[in-house]
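Hello forum,

I keep getting stuck at the same step: I have a sequence, I want structure tokens, and every attempt I make locally crashes halfway through. Rather than fight my setup again tonight, could one of you with a working pipeline run this one for me? It's a single chain of 123 residues.
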Amino acid sequence: MKPIQTNQISPRLTVYSGAFYTGESRIMRGTIGIENTSDGVDDIRSLQFLSMSSSATLVVFTEPGFRGHYRIYRGGVHNVADLNDLIAGDRARSLISTNQPLTQAQVREIGRTGRLPEGDREI
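Reply #2:
Ran it on my machine without issues. Output:
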């Protein structure tokens, strides 16, 4: 029997339209930035982040466009049941999901400019 070869793109980000992983879901793979989690069409209320890399980084921001206060999650698995009141009483309004280890300085620069690192996909 031949071994099966799989090609998984990591990280995997599953977003839900309802809090506590309810409502419609959408799976996104690879390094991405979501500029606005509350665009009125596809609101994101909860998420699950999975990566096999210990250097994977999930960053959530309180303002659209990767601005405002932020929280950094490191490592492979993070479940955020409700994006409301996530950061100092504010809702997460934009986020970055990557397998790369983003430093504090890089996150501050993203927050200052509102621009993702070269080559990252923005949704």
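Residues 12-114 form a domain with the Gamma-B Crystallin; domain 1 fold (CATH 2.60.20.10). If your local run keeps crashing, start a new thread with the error log.
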